[in-house]
Amino acid sequence: MSAPHFSAAFRQELEQLFIWRRDVRHFRTDPVAESVLDGLLHTACLAPSVGLSEPWRFVRVDAPERRAVIRANFAQANAQALTGHNGDDAQRYATLKLAGLDDAPHQIAVFCETDPTQGRGLGRGTMPQTTVWSAVMAIHTFWLAAAAQGIGVGWVSILNPAKAALALSVNPNWQFLAYLCVGYPQEQASTPELERKGWEYRNPARRRWINR
Ligand SMILES: Cc1cc2nc3c(=O)[nH]c(=O)nc-3n(C[C@H](O)[C@H](O)[C@H](O)COP(=O)(O)O)c2cc1C
Q1: Helix 130-148 to helix 34-44 angle, to the nearest 10 degrees?
Q2: Residue 125: partners with Cβ closer than 8 Å, 6 or more residues away
Q3: CATH H superfamily, domain 22-188
Q4: Which of 1, 21, 29, 116 has CB atoms 3.0–4.6 Å from 147's, for a disulfide?
Q5: 10 Å Cβ neighbour count for 170?
Q6: Which residues line the pocket of ligand 1, CB cutoff 6 A?
Q7: Each residue of 67-94: pLDDT tens digit?
Q8: Is residue 111 within 8 Å of residue 149, measured between CB atoms?
Q9: Maximum CA extent, the chain
């Protein structure tokens, strides 16, 4: 197979994908076709991983009772997070929608098998966290691939990870990384919702190199 040539037009479209990929919290309830979800998982698995260890474990959460436990976990963690803010800040935090758990038709928990046999330990002797970083790269690949098909992904991290892992009855050695809400977004936007709500803004200083 010969390597593809990526045209300037493709690169411009790819840049648009990066610009329009959003963390989505407002979902339509109609499902994404199973074949499309399978395709996203296959694409996510093209992510790089330390020693080719592929330590990501994508867990579909469909059972209503498990979803309810995660929903309650989020409500508790979010209420706790609110107590970390005061005055105007607390009022503003309370208005933010920080998960699409009620509407997203698909929910996917992502774990990392932190000490997998696959990869035979290559590359992670000095930095064992590299397995987690690898799994996060798969999440990002999934996120971008979804955005390319008009599918929204919302990363929910406001959860007690130990309780979330317990609720999903997975291998106790897997580390809970992310809970993803997946579905078609109610709206598209080229800027983060947190910016649109006045909570935080992209900082142009981050686009400058630090030189040493
Ligand atoms: C590791 C990680 C955890 C996140 N957790 C949450 C979360 O719990 N709730 C939420 O609403 N957004 C969460 N986000 C989304 C960020 O708020 C979002 O990426 C950021 O505001 C930039 O917006 P954008 O992704 O639309 O560009 C998370 C993102 C990352 C990468």
Answers
A1: 140
A2: none
A3: NADH Oxidase (3.40.109.10)
A4: 21
A5: 16
A6: 22-23, 25, 98-99, 155-158, 192, 194
A7: 999 999 999 999 999 999 999 999 999 9
A8: no
A9: 61
